[in-house]
Amino acid sequence: MIQTIPTTPIEGQKPGTSGLRKKTAQFRALRYLENFVQSIWTGIGGVAGKTLVLGGDGRAFNVDATQTILKMAAASGAAKVIVGQNGLLSTPAASNLIRTRGADGGIILSASHNPGGDDGDFGVKYNTANGGPAPESVTNAIFKASEAVTEYHILDSADLDLGALGTTTLGDMTVEVVDPVADYATLMEQLFDFDAIRALMTSGFTLRFDAMHAITGPYAREILVNRLGAPESAVMNATPLPDFGGGHPDPNPVWAHELMGLMMGDDAPDFGAASDGDGDRNMIVGRGTYVTPSDSLAVIAANAHVAPGYARGLAGVARSMPTSAALDRVAQARDLPCYATPTGWKFFGNLLDAGRATLCGEESAGTGSDHVREKDGLWAVLMWLNILAAKRLSVAEVMAAHWAEFGRNYYSRHDYEGVDKTAAESLIADLRAQLDKLADLPAGPLVVSEAEDFSYTDPVDGSVTAAQGIQIMFEGGARLVLRLSGTGTDGATLRVYMENFESADFGMDPQAALVDVIAAAEALAGIKTRLGRETPDVVT
Ligand code: G16
Asked: Of 237, 250, 283, 235, whose CA–CA distance to 110 is shortest?
């Protein structure tokens, strides 16, 4: 029986950089999830007759939310939902299923790299028929619907058994429970030279993949161990847990410190990698060598042709604006179109759909290609393994060769997390107000050459997205970007991105190489005084 439950709008259901992310307790609160899901149905023009993909990263509330969404989809007339076994699907695997099954869209339950558990975060993201995150036109429509919702519809029925693979029904709706790994693993086999990687694995090469107790454990076991021949011990923290084992499933040197310790130690494996809560981010690290996401993107752009799926070459490349210009150097040398978009994978969708970009990436540890419409953690790991298998060089040697050819963009991001929202917003607003007066003025040891509030005009559909970050260029070529994160749930997070190009000295510590830009950021923004923080919380 379909129940119609009266409700009233709940404030703040505005999707951010990547869906709606809130505290798990908030999502569990009365009508919170239901209001938002009903608003998704309204925002996409109704779900009646549609086929959706549904799954999440296994964090607390994943299963309960999956059951609720299934009953709400059935009550609103959806034709079919394809759901990952036990409600699990990594973000790239969900994107792949939407595309290969010709679904109308999908819902991904994840707060990505944010901690999970009862005290952690939860999230709901809607992806469209191309498999990618909904564009702003859709997320704005969902938000508008959330401000006007008066009732929601839900089927009054028992929970489904999500552990049993196969097809069943819920009311008039078909539910197909699928293996979350199988189709994705097959796609990876089509893109990469598994024979070459297997040969590398049996040549004495050692690797460690840290699944951070998040969704990629089962994927890494199937692909790295079962299909590529790595030993079981190559995958650490492989069992997904609702609270990620109490960890912060963000693959960067700070949060993946267990892996970093190993990789920087005496007995380090040749190659290390990690992925995040929902499997779309990655970290690449060689023995004694951390590879920044921006450098990883540039290396992949320069070498992707070694992988069979990319042997035809790249149509173009794209990065988010704050990502370093290391990619641009490769693009220039190889005569490839190169795009800079706002932060958020959704902005790559049109470029990928239009065939203008094959490869995309972000400084926030996301890299991917046109194989799906999400960034893809294991894809990046396999791409690196394919490159290492083809070149038979160490990660350090790959980096040295890359910098020798293209130069090095020293790069770092400083995050000030959980700061006072009003103080952070006024810091950005005050900088914005001065932008047209900054050119030619000193900023600490540097001199500003150009300053702008980044605005993006999508080259495919002409849509304009303004106010996407303060970008300041300095004489001599250094660059500074400041913006507020759109994914946090506590106060505000200020992100300060810095880069400086170096054509000869590749062995510096990035913080030392960027010391002038760091000083210029402080001089321009007054972070210490305004936010009351002496040092950043996370430096990547
Ligand atoms: C999301 C987006 C990314 C973005 C990142 C950081 O990643 O998909 O495109 O770069 O957030 O965004 P912000 O700087 O606004 O916090 P994920 O992995 O969290 O879905």
From this structure: 250
